């Protein structure tokens, strides 16, 4: 399916409720996929049951230079120090490289900042493939289902280092702003 296929995303409140809850504003305020594209997010819907043979995934990997892949499985009984790790994923950060995740099972929330510094919550589900651009502030949490299985892709040797906000002087942050921010 095409880039810009439908994706559930909405602005969230900053209540202290459990991070696994949807945190909708009242009334709910959804974010169109076009807005996500304008922030630099890439999204495809692919066939996760057949990902090893999927021609579209093969094409994306070749075009974007994704040479590495592995699988993460996150659930309370699968991840050591689950609650602490979940809190860590949820600290606002960026990476020097793209974060590419193809959801093979389950679901979770990727929160990303827009240029007005508001959080947008993206509900990534089975078959969604997302690219969070280098230098974009974001965080991750499981949702109430408390399970996600994702293929992680990378260009070359993988580096998952989180750079916690603020990172105003980080070259990837500066590049992100220069490329994507429109006044
Ligand atoms: C990671 O690297 O493990 C993450 O980004 C957590 C979310 S992956 C579904």
Automatic annotation (TrEMBL):
Binding site for Ni(2+): 93, 95, 99, 138
Binding-site list for Fe(2+): 93, 95, 99, 138
EC numbers on record: 1.13.11.54, 1.13.11.53
Cofactor: Fe(2+); Ni(2+)
Signal peptide: none
Cofactor binding: number and manner: Binds either 1 Fe or Ni cation per monomer. Iron-binding promotes an acireductone dioxygenase reaction producing 2-keto-4-methylthiobutyrate, while nickel-binding promotes an acireductone dioxygenase reaction producing 3-(methylsulfanyl)propanoate.
Record pathway: Amino-acid biosynthesis; L-methionine biosynthesis via salvage pathway; L-methionine from S-methyl-5-thio-alpha-D-ribose 1-phosphate: step 5/6
GO cellular component assignments: cytoplasm; nucleus; plasma membrane
A Pfam family this chain is assigned to: ARD
Main location: membrane
Physiological role: Catalyzes 2 different reactions between oxygen and the acireductone 1,2-dihydroxy-3-keto-5-methylthiopentene (DHK-MTPene) depending upon the metal bound in the active site. Fe-containing acireductone dioxygenase (Fe-ARD) produces formate and 2-keto-4-methylthiobutyrate (KMTB), the alpha-ketoacid precursor of methionine in the methionine recycle pathway. Ni-containing acireductone dioxygenase (Ni-ARD) produces methylthiopropionate, carbon monoxide and formate, and does not lie on the methionine recycle pathway.
Protein name: Acireductone dioxygenase
């Amino acid at each position: 399916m095409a880039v810009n296929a439908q994706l559930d995303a909405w602005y969230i409140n900053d209540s202290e409720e459990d991070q696994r809850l949807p945190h909708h504003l009242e009334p709910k305020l959804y974010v169109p996929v076009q807005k996500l594209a304008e922030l630099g997010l890439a999204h495809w819907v692919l066939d996760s049951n057949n990902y090893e043979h999927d021609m579209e995934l093969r094409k994306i990997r070749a075009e974007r230079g994704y040479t590495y892949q592995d699988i993460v499985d996150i659930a309370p009984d699968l991840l050591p120090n689950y609650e602490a790790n979940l809190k860590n994923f949820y600290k606002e950060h960026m990476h020097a490289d793209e974060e590419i995740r193809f959801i093979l099972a389950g679901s979770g929330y990727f929160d990303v900042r827009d240029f007005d510094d508001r959080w947008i919550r993206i509900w990534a589900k089975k078959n969604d493939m997302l690219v969070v651009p280098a230098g974009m502030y974001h965080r991750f949490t499981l949702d109430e289902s408390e399970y996600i299985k994702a293929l992680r892709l990378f260009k070359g040797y993988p580096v998952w280092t989180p750079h916690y906000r603020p990172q105003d002087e980080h070259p990837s942050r500066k590049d992100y702003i220069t490329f994507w921010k429109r006044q």
